[in-house]
Prior knowledge:
The structure is a homodimer.
Chain A: E1 4-12, H1 29-40, E2 49-50, E3 59-69, H2 75-85, E4 90-98, E5 108-118, E6 132-133, H3 141-148, E7 153-156, E8 171-182, E9 185-192, H4 199-211, H5 219-226, E10 241-248
Parallel strand pairs in A: 3-10, 5-6
Antiparallel strand pairs in A: 1-3, 1-4, 2-3, 5-9, 5-10, 7-8, 8-9
Catalytic activity (chains A, B): uridine(38/39/40) in tRNA = pseudouridine(38/39/40) in tRNA
Pfam families (chains A, B): PseudoU_synth_1
GO molecular function (chains A, B): RNA binding; tRNA pseudouridine(38-40) synthase activity
Amino acid sequence: MQMTRVKAVVAYDGTNFAGYQSQPSMRTVQSEIDKALVKIHKDKKIHSVASGRTDAGVHANGQVIHFDTPLTLPLDRWQTALNVLLPMDIRIVGVEFIDEKFHARYSATGKTYIYKWSYSEVHSPFERNYSVHLGKWHPDVQRMKEATVHFLGTHDFTSFCSSKTATSNKVRTIRQLTLEEQGDLLIMTIEGDGFLYNMVRTIAGTLLAVGKGWNTPADVKRILESCDRKEAGKTAPSHGLYLDSVTYND
Amino acid sequence: MQMTRVKAVVAYDGTNFAGYQSQPSMRTVQSEIDKALVKIHKDKKIHSVASGRTDAGVHANGQVIHFDTPLTLPLDRWQTALNVLLPMDIRIVGVEFIDEKFHARYSATGKTYIYKWSYSEVHSPFERNYSVHLGKWHPDVQRMKEATVHFLGTHDFTSFCSSKTATSNKVRTIRQLTLEEQGDLLIMTIEGDGFLYNMVRTIAGTLLAVGKGWNTPADVKRILESCDRKEAGKTAPSHGLYLDSVTYND
């Protein structure tokens, strides 16, 4: 049967999901997407493949998936059909037909994540699931910025991933790491060739420890070299984290 | 017993509440606030009084309540104690001690509501509970602005309130009514001396009908004069509505 590969960009509010990946009897992003695909394909099982998982509570502006279909719907109908069937906390924001050599996970050449903290005096009820509240207390953002340089480039990130990480190669390259204040929000943006399990949240937690004065910017270099997860800061909470975009070579 | 009256400004995300007012076995904003007050007062029942109810799904940036307490906590402790006990979708954003002649409902001299529509191509999953999606279609905002003038001033708003409204006096004064585009959002702001049940949402629905070309701006005058709810537009959905602030004469 002639199959067509569809690439889709997906935004989701991670609040009410037990993470991205399908799990028995849990509400996950993948299971909702695959359920919609089954309906479109009249009960034939179609599985989507994502660029990677995200944890419970983690959001996405631009997760990327692909799936193969025997149907011959025009492109705009794919977006409409999926959005009609999906719950409102998952939205397909873009679709394209793509070569079958494209793979949402293996073809990815980079990912960008965003992490948001809020230092509004009272955490807005509308922000409660979308940023991590620091209270009235302002971290030393200049100090945090000084620490970012140590993450840039290629390093062994053993100190910055969950000890449960199965991947043996823990070398990753960080291409960009910025901190920006926008109103009451402090926003970290990080771009790299790939990220280990909990890596962005551990980097966020470690930068915050620097901002709190518990570590110096130079300590980051020492922590990286130690290759010991216990040296790094806490894993920052999931609800401040957004998978912002995934890049591919065209 | 010496009682102290406390005035508090309350923000809430209305999404997960069955409205403001206490109802048996329902999660409401008032029941959560009164539960927190009971805890602070060691199981003594203290009832809060609000400026008015809001419906299920309606949000607030600045609802106002008052309650009387025999306790002598310092002012900042009231805010902290309530916020510790309240769920994260209700936040006390301000407190003050106030004369016992102040009454959150009867002393109010005006209220401001905001209504939000979104015309982003795809409704962001993060916006789904906070604005009403119009889809790709843009209403004629200039036409809607022309219609706003007919609401200004003092009118009988029988056509613009639920037929279930118990209040016999349906005369209200609108002091301000503006429409503003902010990015993908169309925002209506309305200020008046008071509002009947569903009045803001019916005005919003009627303005949108003008923007859609179903009614002319001049029709608004005719609808007001008809004193017939059936003449006005649909009641706009609750999740676009925010009680923004309540004003009092000092």
